[in-house]
Each structure stands twice: as C-alpha cells, then as structure tokens.
Automatic annotation (TrEMBL):
Organism of origin: Brevundimonas alba
TM ranges: 53-77, 124-150, 170-188
InterPro entries xref list: DedA_domain, VTT_dom
Pfam families: VTT_dom
Cellular component per GO, a single term: plasma membrane
Protein name per the record: Membrane protein YqaA with SNARE-associated domain
Coiled coil: none
Record's keyword terms, sorted: Membrane, Transmembrane, Transmembrane helix
Boundaries of every VTT domain copy: 53-152
Amino acid sequence: MLRKLYDWVFSLARSRHATPALAVISFAESSIFPVPPDVMLAPMILARPDKAYFYAMVCTVASVLGGILGYAIGFYMTDLGLWLMNLLGHSDGLAEFQHWFDRWGLAVILVKGLTPIPYKLVTIASGLAAFSFPVFVAASVVTRGARFFIEAWVLRRWGPAMLAQVEKRLALWSVIGIVVLVGAVVAVKLL
C-alpha cells in the first residue's frame, strides 16, 4: 500500500499539473487547508532537481498570497476566524491572539513561519490581532521564502542520496514521517 501511494505521489510530481497543484496547495494551506505544501514540494524537487528553486518560488508566492487571505479572514471576518482557530485547537479566542502579538509581536510570525506548525494559525491570528499588515507581509515573505528555499537547497543537494534511502526503507521512513507529523500536531495543541 505504501509503495502505491509513494508511486502515485511521484507520478503526480512529474505530471504537467504538478506546478498548479503545488500553487493551489500552498495558497490554501496558509489560510484554510490542513495539508502542508511540502507533501508536493519534496517529491517535485526529487523528481526534477533542476527546478528546485522555481518550485520554492511558486510555494513562497502562493503561500504569502494565501497568508493574505488568512489575515483578511481574521481581520474582516472575526467570527469565521475565531471558528477556524477553534477548529484548529485554539479556542481561547481573540484575547489569546492579541496577547501573542502584544507579547512577542513580529517573533510570532518569524518563528512560526519557518516551522511545520500550520501557518494558517499565524495568518488568521495576525488578522484577529490587527497586527501591522505591511510587517505581516514582509515577515511572511522572509519566513516562507526561507523555509521553502532551504528545503529546496537541501533536497537538491542531498535529495538523490536521501531518495535512495527512502526507497530502500519506505516503511521505516513512513513511520518516522507519521511520528514527526503527530509531534507537530501535539506541538500546535500545546502552543
């Protein structure tokens, strides 16, 4: 079963629809969608290392644009923003988000934008807290760009060797991936 899923992801990564799909996933993940773009980005880079930085740019631009939508949801549609935050496990409401930005300000965006913690938490919370929009956009460009370009660089440099190991021990790497994913979800719940 894992082999079929693995083969399907790689066939999608090589298809002519891969780049638009990557853009859509990156955009949606920054505001409402639960799946991070890395699930598309990594296989696409491994399939076409020569386009690694192009794919990182697509991810960055789409993610920042999706982040602007997330900010708008929090800023203009407070009830929807609070509902989404509650759905994501942050039910403490508007006061909690304003406290984040009052206490840590820009650091909230810079730290969370680089990590696998769902970025939609940051975008919606930034809007809910009425955080400075130009600073939000600038920080989003820096953090999302850094995250995706570092991932592209690592996968381009060591990807073929990593890919050989993943293919050799697919079940082990799948378990490790699930553990990391569960750890990220637990970290989000604790924050």
